[in-house]
Amino acid sequence: MVAREPGRTLADRLNHLFAGMTVRNGQEFSNEQVASAIVATGVTISQSYIWQLRKGRKDNPTFKHLQALAAFFGVPVSYFFDDEVTDRVDEQLVRLRAEQARLTEIMDSSDAQLMALRAGELSPRGRRQVMDLLDVVHRLEQAERDSGPQG
User: Fold this and answer.
1) What is the C-alpha to C-alpha distance for residues 65 and 71, in angstroms, rounded to an integer?
2) Within 13 A of 65's CA, how many CA atoms are on the CB side?
3) Does the pTM exceed 0.90?
4) Where is the HTH cro/C1-type domain (predicted)?
5) Co-location of 99 and 116 in the same domain
6) Phi-psi category of 3—alpha, beta or left, where left has phi over 0 and alpha has psi -120 to 50?
7) C-alpha pair distances (Å), 40 with each of 17, 31, 98
8) Does 82 map to a domain?
9) pLDDT bracket for residue 52 (50, 70, 90)
10) CA dist 147 → 45, 83, 140 (Å)
11) Are 1 and 90 in contact (CB under 8 A)?
């Protein structure tokens, strides 16, 4: 269980989400990335406003902004003001980070596993094409082994 931090501010909670939700390379989302994604949903928000929220210089955002931030990070809006919800989401984030670390370790440990993970992101047609290509390469290598030096 995640230890409850008494008196967590909006800035604390928002920064915790930034730290817990990273882009594929493991880096935090930038304020600009978050603002751009939110603006794309039709909600007006700037990177400087997000920076002010994260620094605690602004601490009373509109509900619309809280909804947009919550939607971006995939958490309920109550994350920002309900300690029980915050604790529950934080526990899920800990598990998510552990799972991401495990997947990263798997991907780094084996080319075959990395290929399988990437294939999972392909369309069904793309996976069939990859399998066909793997079958051709497998048959070629098998033929090379079978026709190796004979005594």
Assistant:
1) 10
2) 16
3) no
4) 45-80
5) no
6) beta
7) 20, 14, 30
8) yes
9) very high
10) 66, 68, 11
11) no
Q: Which amino acid is at 81?
A: F
Rounded-to-integer distance, Cα 83 and Cα 112, Å: 43
Q: What CATH number has the domain bearing residue 86? A: 1.10.260.40
Structural domain range at position 134 = 111-146
Residue type, 9: T
Please give the full DSSP string across 72-91, using - where no structure is assigned.
HHT--GGGGT-HHHHHHHHH
CB of 37 closer than 8 Å to CB of 72: yes
**What does pLDDT average to over the chain?**
87
**Does one domain contain both 21 and 42?**
yes
3 domain residue, yes or no:
no
Cβ atoms within 10 Å, residue 7? 6
C-alpha radius of gyration, the chain, whole number: 23
- Tell me: pLDDT of 93 over 90: no
